[in-house]
Amino acid sequence: MAVVRYLYAALVALFFTAQLSAQESTGSVRGQVVDSTSQQPLSSVTVRIEGTTRGTLTREDGGFTLTGIAPGLHRVRATRIGYSSKAQEVTVTAGGTATVQFSMGALAANLGEIVVTGYGTQRRLAITGSVATIDPEAANVGVTPNVNSMIQGRAAGVNVTQNSGEPGAAAQVRIRGGTSITASNEPLYVIDGIPIQNNDTEGAGVGISGNSPPLGRSPLNLLNPSDIASISILKDASATAIYGSRGANGVVLIETKKGSHGAA
C-alpha cells in the first residue's frame, strides 16, 4: 500500500514537472488596444498570431493575453469591424512575456450602390425586390428625343415601342408584359417623388381635315434628358405595396439633377 502511495505521488510530481517545463519552453504576449482618436479601450477586438491558431478577444478594458506562444519573432494582428486592422512584430522568449500596444483608427465603410425604391434609398445588397437601374450618362448618348428613348433596351424585362415617328409621340412601355386586356398596361411614372398622371398630354382626335394627331403625346416630353440624375424601375409586386393599384404595371422612378454645395 505504501508503494502505491509513493508511486501516485511520483506520477503527480512528474505531471507538474512536465507542465512547468512546457510553460518554461513557451512565452506569452500581453497588451492593450485603444481607439486612436479618443484613446479609450476597445473591447471585442480579435487579436491573433499570424500563421498560427492562437487568438483571443480583448476584454472591456481593451487588454488581452495570449499564452503558449513558441519562442521567436511573431507578427500580431488586431482586427475589428469598423476599424482599420493593425499589425506589429514582437519577439517572444521562453518563459517571458512580450508586450504590444495597438492604436486603431475608425475606417469608413463602403456602402455600395444606392438605389431609389420609392420610399427612400436603399443599398442594392439589401433590396429583395426586382429593381432595374439605368445610368443616365450612359443612356443619354446620340440622338435622345425623350426619356422613353433612354429606357429602351437598357433594362431587362422592359419593352419600349414607339407608336409613331412623330416628334414627341407617345411610346408603349411594358414592364414584364401586359397585365390587362381592357385596362391600361402603362406603368406609373414618379418624378422627384411626385406621381404623375400617365395620360396623354394631347388626346387622339378624329378630324375631317385630317390635321388632328392620330396618337397622343408622351407625358415625359416635359423632361429634358440631360436633366435626369437617375432612373429606377420597380418591376415586381413591391411596386404595388408602395403605390397601390397604380403601380400594378410597374413604376418608373425618375430623379432630376439638383443644385449642390461647393464650387461651381
Could you list some keywords that capture this structure?
264 residues, alpha+beta, Immunoglobulin-like, Ferric Hydroxamate Uptake Protein, Chain A, domain 1, 2 domains, 5-stranded mixed β-sheet, rod-shaped
Question: What can you tell me about this protein's structure?
Answer:
The chain is α+β, with helices and mostly antiparallel strands and 264 residues long. The protein folds into two domains: 2-104, Sandwich (Immunoglobulin-like), CATH 2.60.40; 114-256, TonB-dependent receptor, plug domain (Ferric Hydroxamate Uptake Protein, Chain A, domain 1), CATH 2.170.130. It is built from four helices and 16 strands. The chain has helices at 2-25, 136-139, 147-151, 238-243, and strands at residues 27-35, 46-49, 55-57, 63-69, 72-80, 83-92, 97-104, 114-116, 121-123, 131-134, 158-162, 171-175, 188-191, 194-196, 228-234, 251-256. It has a five-stranded mixed beta sheet. The protein starts with a helix and ends in an 8-residue tail after the last strand.
Short synopsis of the structure:
With 264 residues, the protein is α+β, with helices and mostly antiparallel strands. Helices cover 15% and strands 34% of the residues. The model is unreliable at 201-205 (pLDDT under 50).
